[in-house]
Write the structure tokens for this entry.
Amino acid sequence: MPVPGTQADDNRHAAFHLALNKKYYQMKQCRKNVWLCRTTTVRCLRGMMLLIFGWFLMTGEMFAQGPSNQTGITVTGTVFDEFDTALTGVTISVDGTSIGIITDIEGRFSLVVPSEEVFVKFRFIGYQTQLVNVGKTREFKIKLQPTNMDLEEVVVIGYGEIKKRDLTGSVSSIKADEIVKLPTHNPVEALQGRIPGMDIVRSSGNAGADVNITIRGNRSINGENSPLFIIDGIQGGSYSDLNQSDIESMEVLKDASSTAIYGSKGANGVVIITTKKGLAGKTKVSYDGYYGINGIVDYPSPLTGDAYLDYVREGKVAAGTYTSDEAMFTADVWAAIQAGQWVDWTKLLLHDGSQQSHTVSLKGGNEKTKLYMSFNYFEEVGMLTNDNMERFIYRTNVNHGINKWASIGMNTQLTYSEKNARTADFGTAISARPLGTPYAEDGSVIRYPIAGDQSTLSPLLNETDDYTQVNNTLKASIVTKAFLEIKPMKGLTYRSNLSTTINASRQGKYDDTWSLATEGEYNEATATTSGSLSLMWDNILTYNQQLGDHDFGGTVLSSWSKNSDEYYTASGLNIAVPNQLFYNLDATEADGRSIYSEYTQSQMMSIACRLNYSYKGRYLFQVSERLDGSSVLPKHWCDFPSISGGWRISDESFMEDLAGTLTNLKFRASYGMTGNDGIAAYGTQSLVIADTRLAFGETAATYYYFGTDKANTDLEWEMSETIDLGFDFGLWNRINGTIDIYQTLTSGVLYERSSVPSAGGGGFTTWQNVCSTSNKGIELMISSDNIRKKHFKWSTTYTFSTNKEEITGLLEGTDILSGEDNSLLLGHEISSYRCYEKLGIWQLGEEEAAALYNCEPGDIKIKDQITEDTNGDGIADAANGQIDEDDYVYIGSKNPKWQMGLNNTFELCGFDLSFFFNVRWGQVISSDILGRYKPSASNIPSGLDYWTETNPSNDFPRPNALKELSSYTGYQALKYTDGSYIKLKTINFGYTLPKKMSDALSIERLRVYATGSNLWYWAKSHLLNNYDPERGGSEDSPLGRQLVMGINLTF
Amino acid sequence: MKQIHHIILFLMVLSMASCSLEEYNPSGTTAETVFSTPEGYGTLVNACYVNLRGELYGSEDILLMSEGGTDLWFNNEKSYYMKQVTRYKDLSSDLTKFNNPWKRLYDPINLCNAAIARADAAGFATEAQRDAKVAEAYFLRAFYYWILVENWGGVILRTEETSSTVLTATRSSVDDFYEVIMADIDFATHYLPATQTDLGRADQKAAWGLKARLALTRAAYFDPASAEGQTYYTMARDAAKHVIDSMSTYGVSLYADFNDVFDPANNKANTECLFKVTHSSTNSLNMDDTPNRLHLWFLSDYSSYCGVSLNLDDGNDQSGSRGPGLMPTLYLLDLFNEDMDARYYASFQEAFLCNYVKDPTNPLAGTKKKWTAAEITRFKKNPLVIKTTTTIDTGDTALFFTKKQVANKATINFGVVDRDDLYETEGCDSIRTTELNVHHPVLKKYLDPDRSTTASDLSTKDVIIMRLAEMYLIAAEAEYRLGNTGQAASYINVLRTRAAIKTPVDMTAAMQIAEGDLSTEFFLEERGRELCGEHIRWFDLVRVFRRDPASWVSWIKTYNPNILDIETYHMLRPIPISEIETMLNWEEFGQNPGY
């Protein structure tokens, strides 16, 4: 990376550059040879390559030169910002030396300079560096002007870091202060809507729930579509177990030139998370904490009262069996109706929960040793009874300089969490009879809420007592990275990272005899322990050198990783004492026990290199190459090249006239290959599976049958080829923007192909490289300081992205059909829905037309698609007159057509207020709740507008007590609807204590705030009343609103 | 400083040196490892049986396919449950209904194919041992293919183990199917052991019995007078006769009293059984947690009326895992002359006894069950005679759902639903649309009073797939087709003698038939009386009308007038959507005609 040095030793670096090139050539050779000679030869070549590299290192000279003692003139002064406020922490140094100091709390400094000729340099992050000749002045009053902060920002990229101005790829970055603005247990949620092209939705409303993330659409079908997470250099860490206060920055790498350095794991984008480091100087102690409530959920109630009676009556009338209201029900149910015992089961299930988080962190150290430590406690109480999570995180980041050229360090995080998950059957709650007495006088749950009626079990059954349903997970993980950094000569850095991740978890489940899962039949206890161990060792060699206007940089690395997982589970039935739960499995019945264990292991190794070159910082150029070997695929090895360039147009002399207006303009272009090994370990082995659930008479018999997977030894990597064109621009130092246009073509997309069922095995599956896809899109991000006054600031950030995903080719050239939700359709998204197209409901007056389709008013009206070719010209020109398989068509996708984020922040006299809106538009939702419409069920959710002779609804067909849903032609289409929505995701209101006051209290910073999230939404489809569409269609675990009060305090 | 360079060099070389990309999988194993010993091979043959018990005999799909949509049964409540199978309604537009049975038949066929192909490599000490074992796979493959070809016709005949992706299929003719089926069953009859120690494993009697059934089915594809027809009827007769003649060898015999055949106490050691699936009383040895659900599928709505509460004898009519089940057609009920044929009351339950127990927590509750106003209305009682003070004694008949006409329905002191309440006997015998149509005579053959609780769906009773009586029916029908009507009548009379009511008046003589009574219709009727509900009716009807689909339709429409949507093409089931969607050469393969 071209981080400009201050001195140069041309000869040495020219030679080094030569060697690098040589090495690069060797690597290319090596890669070619991989295909020819397999691993042994490759190892040999790799060894040679490293020997050459090593030899070169040994002949290099040591760089160790200490600054000499200085004596001279003392100058003093004060540094101010553009509003004449004193700036603390400004670095003041004598240019060309290492003499330096920082300003104190009043912005004052005092510095001894060697002579009057020297220049003093004032540097402060976010301000333009000023160079002042000492001359005769002894007392300075310096006013620093803010810079285009954005450009000077250092962003972390794969195996290195770079100034934003020198980037050639598409990288978005979010810093610590932004991340803590959305208080949540999952720091990635803070990125939602803030990074164009990154789609983040919460996976459920349960305590401790995760998020689903994709960057620039989906490429893979069965494989991974989530980005690769790199946490402090460790691949594949668990971002949801990070404490958000520990995070220094998150970088999202989107284009292939940025991610190709991660090769086979880079296809879905990369998110790099860097945690905080210690600082030399005064020890800072911070406390970040919040407490809030979770709840106020929108969720449909079941029908009750007259609406319920109307629904049941209509069903009986339609079936021709209506005589009287009383006759519609059994005596017991009727008695409950007469007594007015209406129950809204969903209301009884949902309660308001809470969440709280407390972090104490410490930053400190001296010149040699720097330390960051933190402790976090997080607790979330979910919206269901006994759905909660508690988590402790301990982090220590330490860095120690052994001498001038070597340092070591270690980042360690220990996480412990305990989670209780409640299984609540929302489906039952909205479809059970809404009647009865839910609780006895002592508050206990009544099993059969309708007296005398044993056909309706209480949907609250799992809340009967503490033992009824237990799902308790304990997790502990230790993530440690130790590193050694050596700088044997100027510009050259060698870094070796060794990291281990140890995860251990235990999940215990118990369902008592009368729980929703067992319904009086048995009780079941299951205990599962699993553990995983991953080891990763990275060796990275970096070299940077400046030769006049030429900046060179090179990175060479090797990486090796191994993951293994073990899984043990045991379960048993009918334990005698329920409160033993899953802790005493040997008390279960001998008959009915089952055990299972599994071991999985995979390995991967890689070598990669990257070269950068820039001329005058104006013309930027980068190439990289990675060679990956994965144990999972039969053809282990593959290479991933990339190339990119940038042109800082605003630095050109012909742009000088516009310098005040167009403060930044850069054009970027990149091309690269990334991959996806997409399948799990052993995905290509044909295995047989043992089972013992068989007997002849009472004689037990073991049987082995064929596992579902049949091996495909021709399987190859999924490869993505991405072109990205980007513009970065800045106007008047106030508006910064980025536009990216990209196209990703993915070939050999891995798909777990099902054989025809007649081949046996329930439809054997085989991994195939089945299709190619394309993702094209535009991303835009604009941030603007609309008003920038001393006491009032208003800034706006706007993001927009659109992505067109398309299957461009399929193995056999025809669609691969697999039900409504999993078909692969040429020309459409991977996650397409294929179903009947619902036009509405047949209305009165349409009897004749309806009869053609064996329908009558009140039935579902399905579009009879044009599928018949009547005149033989090969073009379909007529409908076939019946609703059948031919009328199944593409009806949309779960991917949004476009997304937008809009954030406005106001600051006034220490108060700050921000609103964040988020829009996802054009996606189709497959809604469980809409699918709960049943013409003859015990009940349906309210708000489903069904047809009756007096209510010409076009939403749902007429109820009929004698019909099942499947009796209605086209019923499959009922659950799909437009899922577009606008959401006010967060409002943040805070107050920061003015500096004078905090100084008086000898604290560095104090901010108190209140945040509301998930506050308001508007869904385009009227069918999504009372349902937060971000939940994506599932009826379980709805998303709640959060109101949180918090404090950030630093001493 | 040089040392540093050495260290860096060493580390970088080391990082590259020690890596293998081979997959290490200690918890997985391959077919070649397991199936190469006789014991391991035995586990593959075991696998061939699994679906038979876990997915087919005991669960709904195969029951509704083999008994629904025939002249004998209709949806209880006139519901639309599985209407595509029970009523042929919407069958052409909804091709999903046969996904499961299709898959559940082809899965074990692949395992049978594997077992047949891998027998030589299994390391058996002798050929005899090998043949005796692999014969089980041959037997099962013949059985599975018989179900397939009789339902779907000439579809996909796979005889090799699947080893990689299969995305295409070709059609084979019915002749091709039967070539494989008959060769398989010949192998099985030749090599299967006379008896097996394991209950439920195929043995000689099962193989000969199946051969009789297969040959009779196959014969019906030909003119009875043709050479093929005569060959297969002879084969059917010989095979059935072999079983009948070898009863003592095979340890089977007819119960003297038809009531004993389906007595739950005789279920596990039924002397009449030729082949069955066993469901273990140790539930962890059953593939499905509720392995036998047949006891739920013929029930009438009885509990909580007139003092009959849910009880073990009458079955769990409140089960959540049961759809509206099957009720008998009037045709089925009228097949029986219950005054002389014991099979009616041995097969059907009409009366339900009051099991009222005083509620100890309710001091107001009486010691006897009182009629409620709702019950009086429901069962159309004369409110002047049956009042809310009228009581029913515990142990007395409380409900009576009968094929007979009951004269004094309105005044009799129990709930009555008679043939007039249930069926439109004027014009056509269809089931009435009334709230009373949930109260009907109940097929008793699968009732299981030995379940653990009244509300339990879990029955582990065995399911008989073939029993000795069927051999008499097959022998009789084959003899009839071969022109030996006298012999045919005598086989039938064995069963009718057994079925005759013996007390108080012995009806044996009245039950005898003469050779002149025999006809195609007679065989269908007799099979209905003997085998109703035993997973065979569909096969009987398509067999008998194999060469005359129009008569198949009119027969079913005549005797089950509730079925309105049946067409001749329904004689073949549609290829299910799961197969269509996956098959690349679908256009060429083609759906069965009519769909």
In short: Residues 360 and 511 of chain B are 51 Å apart (CA to CA).
